[in-house]
Amino acid sequence: MNRRRSELRNAMSSSNLRDLQRELENKANDLSKLQKEIAKNHQMRKKYTVQLGENELVLKELDLLKDDANVYKLIGPVLVKQDLAEANANVRKRIEYISAELKRLDATVQDLEEKQNSKKDTILKLQQRIQSFQAGKGKA
Amino acid sequence: MQQGGGSETEVTWEDQQNINKFGRLNNRFHELEDEIKIAKETNDNLEDASNELILTDEEVIRFQIGEVFAHVPKDEVENRIEQIKEVTSQKLAKLEEEKESILAQMAELKKILYAKFNDSINLEED
């Protein structure tokens, strides 16, 4: 009778351990996805930062020009004459758009990093539970 | 290969060849997607350039040849752009055709491999 009970207890504990390990695996997969997402966002942020720098440089150059200066825009393989005021407005609009995108990306990254930290905590707790579980089993 | 809950299935030489082929096709598929994207962007740029030429008053256009801009008569630039557009469109059509063929081959291989390995293999993208 006692042997039957201990067998039952062992079966239950190994089943619990399996569940914990499965949960840990799922959480680790979630964390991996989050990290990929964060890396992707960082990459985009880098790209936008470079673009912002370039556009600000162009704006500085445009501000140095006289009103009657010739401005050209590259469209495909053709340089097309463009109105200075129009070029100025386009660049400013682009800077506005890129700045807004950067702000949005910053917020997204912050949110993702918070999620990542909470996931890491959960994983750590799960690992501790598994370790204590295994230690308990070892003693038994 | 991702381990599922199914029982162990023996992986034959032929299976391994199919898995390798699927991997190669998948890599080529992603390369093609990038190439198609670039070809489409090039086509759009050429279309924009054509439209700008219609609107411009200048008879001599600064046309990019390699690294430099040359002064080229407007009608010649129009002809050149049309030629480039034609070449790009043909290239795009070829790429799209190859992409369709690759997708069909991948679908066929998926069918074969999933039939044998069920959930012991994962051929899906992340």
Structure description:
- The complex is a heterodimer of chains A (140) and B (126).
- Chain A is mainly alpha-helical and 140 residues long.
- Chain A has 2 helices and 2 strands.
- A two-stranded antiparallel sheet of chain A has the order 1-2.
- Chain B has a single domain, classed as Helix Hairpins.
- Chain A binds chain B through residues 33, 36, 72, 74-81, and chain B through 42, 45-46, 48-49, 52-53, 56, 58, 61-65, 69, 77, 80-81, 84, 126.
- Chain B: One of its GO terms (biological process) is protein folding.
- Chain B: Keywords: Chaperone, Coiled coil.
Provide a concise account of the structure shown:
The complex is a heterodimer of chains A (140) and B (126). Chain A has helices at residues 2-64, 84-139; strands spanning 71-75, 78-82.
Average of per-residue pLDDT values of chain A: 83
What form of chain A results from the Cα inertia axes?
A: rod-shaped
| Helicity of chain A, as a percent range | over 70%
Average of the residue pLDDT scores of chain B: 87
Q: Would you list the SSEs of chain A in sequence order as H and E?
A: HEEH
Instruction: Give the N-to-C terminal Cα separation of chain B.
Output: 13 Å
Choose one word for the global shape of chain B.
Answer: rod-shaped
Number of helices of chain A: 2
**Count of individual beta strands of chain A:** 2
CATH-derived topology of the domain at 54-135 in chain A:
Helix Hairpins
Structural class of chain B: mainly alpha
CATH class of the domain at 54-135 in chain A: Mainly Alpha
Strand order of the biggest β-sheet of chain A: 1-2
Note the total helix count of chain B: 2
What's the gyration radius of chain A in Å?
29 Å
Structural class call of chain A reads: mainly alpha
